[in-house]
Design a protein that fits this description.
two-stranded parallel sheet, single chain, 10 strands, alpha+beta, six-stranded antiparallel barrel
């Protein structure tokens, strides 16, 4: 579609000159108008450091966008070690510089961090994941796979749901 080409070209131009905030505005406009393309989404796709190393708890990144959100500021980085909420598991917590990371979400390959303070677009930040909490969740998630495998091999039930909370873990079977 013609409008998709226009948005892609605008985003390319802004990124060429490190104008991340302008590109973020173009991206949000495109989404509001239901204009989507792989190229537009990839412009802000976050490099997911946790996929390469689940034990990486500190990293540096560049702020691509920062906007007010319910409960704080929604911050998108070019790369992150913060694991986002998904698959029944809450997103990682920790800090970006001195700001607390209160939640981490992913949508269309873009990881957003809910923080208690804003950042300037283009700013370099240091992220620190709460390693104790991450490790607890990793162990519980692995335990869920083991228990589900036993339930399946013994009773033939499939795991159809999983939730990993702060104090409890639930599994649903068919």
């Amino acid at each position: 579609r013609e409008d998709t080409i226009v948005y892609e070209a605008a985003c390319d131009l802004f990124l060429k000159y490190d104008k991340y905030e302008e590109c973020a505005k173009i991206l949000m406009q495109a989404r509001d108008l239901h204009v989507s393309s792989k190229k537009i989404n990839e412009a802000f796709m976050t490099e997911r450091l946790y996929d390469a190393d689940a034990y990486r708890f500190e990293f540096s990144a560049t702020v691509l966008s920062c906007s007010p959100a319910t409960g704080g500021w929604q911050v998108v980085l070019d790369r992150t070690a913060f694991f986002p909420e998904g698959g029944g598991q809450d997103g990682d917590l920790g800090t970006l510089d001195d700001a607390k990371v209160l939640d981490t979400q992913i949508c269309d390959g873009i990881v957003s961090h809910l923080t208690d303070a804003p950042f300037a677009v283009g700013q370099t930040v240091v992220g620190k994941v709460d390693a104790v909490e991450r490790f607890r969740r990793m162990q519980n998630h692995s335990g869920e796979h083991i228990v589900s495998g036993i339930v399946h091999s013994t009773f033939g039930f499939e795991n159809v749901g999983f939730h990993l909370g702060e104090r409890e873990m639930t599994m649903d079977y068919d």
